[in-house]
Design a protein that fits this description.
The protein has about 60 residues and is α+β, with helices and mostly antiparallel strands. The protein has one domain. Helices cover about 45% and strands about 25% of the residues. The chain has two helices and three strands; from the N terminus they run βααββ. It has a three-stranded antiparallel beta sheet with strand order 1-3-2. β2 and β3 form a beta hairpin. The model has no long low-confidence stretch (mean pLDDT about 90).
């Protein structure tokens, strides 16, 4: 999903919702684990006043 580009949590949630996931708490936990392990980065989008997530660049 993040290979397509940087996404906000709401955009990620909507894409996962299309796939049929109904428990968004699991999504939050999975995203947090990816942040902690360094696979995903979180950065602010000041124009939209939201955080965006992207795959960490090597």
């Amino acid at each position: 999903m993040l290979r397509e580009g940087d996404l906000t949590f709401d955009e990620i949630k909507n894409k996962v919702k299309e796939e049929g996931l109904k428990n968004y708490w699991l999504l939050r936990e999975a995203l947090l684990e990816l942040l902690r392990s360094g696979v995903v980065e979180k950065y602010p989008d000041y124009e939209r006043k939201k955080f965006r997530f992207r795959l960490k660049r090597l």
